[in-house]
Amino acid sequence: MTKKKGDAGHPRATGELLKIRRASLAGAASIILALGIAGAAHAETAPVGVPDKSFPESVTSTSDGTLFVGSFNHGGVTKITGGKAEQLVKPGAADSRSTLGVLADEKSGTLYVCSNDISAMGVAGPSDTKGAWLKTFDLKSGAPKGSFALSDPKSFCNDIVVGADGTAYVSDSFAPFVYSLKPGGTALATFATDPQLAPAKDGVGLDGIAIGADGNLYVTTFIPAKLFRIEMKDGKAGAVTELKPSRPLDHADALRAHGGGFLLIEGNGKLDKVTVKGSEATIDTIKDGLAEPVSVTQVGDVGWVAEGKLSYVIGDNKGKDPGPFKLTPVALPK
Fold first, then answer.
1. Taking 70 as the threshold, does the pLDDT of residue 228 lie above it?
2. What is the pLDDT of residues 230-242, one digit of tens each?
3. Rounded to an integer, what distance in angstroms lies between the CA atom of residue 302 and that of residue 304?
4. From the CB of residue 246, how many other CB atoms can be counted at a distance below 10 Å?
5. What distance in Å separates the CA atoms of residue 84 and residue 49, rounded to the nearest whole number?
6. How far apart are CA 226 and CA 251, in angstroms?
7. Which residue from 4, 8, 159, 246 has the highest number of Cβ atoms inside 10 Å of its Cβ?
8. What are phi and psi of 314, to 5 degrees?
9. Are 104 and 58 spatial neighbours (Cβ–Cβ below 8 Å)?
10. What's the CA gap between 8 and 154, in Å, rounded?
11. Sign of CA pseudo-dihedral 146, 147, 151, 154
């Protein structure tokens, strides 16, 4: 997934990324397994439709249940309230392009958006902006607030989390960096970097990002699928530790704080609960059989899962009808 033309290293990584949500997902849309962890609260509500052929890559929410979803191919951000969708951020607004990670921060009234040029994958997007960017918009009006470039020529802006002090942290899938942006900041700074976070050959690096109940930063890598803890103390990064999962992970994607642990999306169709103790991570599957899931956000006791079906725009199913897009509600364990 190149950011600049002529980068010889990216086509291999891109090739992997084009395949990441495909073969193992075959038939996933038709497999609805009612798997749940004991204690899951309340029944799931009805799925919510996403605009036609918009290929969502990330979803976020506010406390009132409003959902915000980006579009891998069209760009922009759609706001969904009471099941009704409206365009909050127009495609190409503030020189944005394809939108991936989205995060609503109610405290600052800011919508954070990862914008990337993925034209090398055959997805033009709504503008000609090159490179990888973190864009910020007003959470209510969608008006542009700021634009911040990721520094490495190979960078790919994937996802965002915001700390209690308002600092935003951003994962970079094609360079071994977690960036930070302090409130009022004018540029991204490198918060953490470590060889363990570098993309493997023909792989895809940092993806999901969340802050744990212990105050530390947690990240996933996509290919190979791994979990890491980045210690945080006094606003600075410390040791990076790879966590040992209780079972192998498959394309570890979005990561969101949930209670004392996390919600994790696996690209092979799973929504998981992750419980970390020391350097070990217990993985419990909440729901399987999701159709190429890419992200999750929590509203009350429901997790809303974005089913991206990206193989229909960049993978083996390209050119085929992906059918309708939706955000799928899943009852979460307490």
1. yes
2. 999 999 999 999 9
3. 6
4. 12
5. 8
6. 8
7. 159
8. -135, 5
9. no
10. 10
11. positive
8 Å CB contact between 53 and 322: yes
Q: Please compute, for residue 323, the number of CA atoms within 13 A of its CA located in the half-sphere on the CB side.
A: 8
> Residue 94: left (phi > 0), alpha (psi -120 to 50), or beta?
left
Q: How is residue 226 written in tokens?
A: 């791994």
**For residue 93, which phi and psi values (nearest 5 degrees)?**
-60, 140
Q: Which residue has the tokens 């600075």?
A: 236
Q: Count Cα atoms within 13 angstroms, Cβ side, for 58.
A: 29
Asked if residues 277 and 292 have their Cβ atoms less than 8 Å apart, the reply is no
Beta bridge partners of 181: 168
320/326 Cα distance (integer angstroms): 17
Containing H/E element for 305? strand 302-307
Q: Check residue 179 and report its DSSP letter.
A: E
SS3 of residue 323 by DSSP: coil
SS3 (DSSP) at 2: coil
Handedness of CA 188, 191, 195, 201 (dihedral sign): negative
Q: Which residues pair with 60 in a beta bridge?
A: 68
Q: What is the DSSP pairing of strand 217-223 with strand 280-287? A: unpaired
Sign of CA dihedral 319, 16, 210, 284: positive
What mean pLDDT is reported for the chain? 88
Weakest-pLDDT range from 21-30, 83-92, 295-304? 21-30
- State the CB neighbour count (10 A cutoff) for residue 243: 17
Q: What is the pLDDT of residues 25-63, one digit of tens each?
A: 333 333 333 333 333 334 458 999 999 899 999 999 999
> Which of 332, 321, 334 has its CA nearest to residue 55?
321
- Per the structure block, which two tokens stand in for 252? 């570890």
Determine what percent of the chain falls in helix, strand and coil, rounding each to the nearest 5: 10, 45, 45
Q: Name the DSSP letter for residue 15.
A: H
Residues paired with residue 319 on neighbouring β-strands, in sequence order: none
Residue type, 156: F
Contact predicate 222/255, CB 8 Å: no
Tell me if 269 sits within 8 A of 289, measured CB to CB.
yes
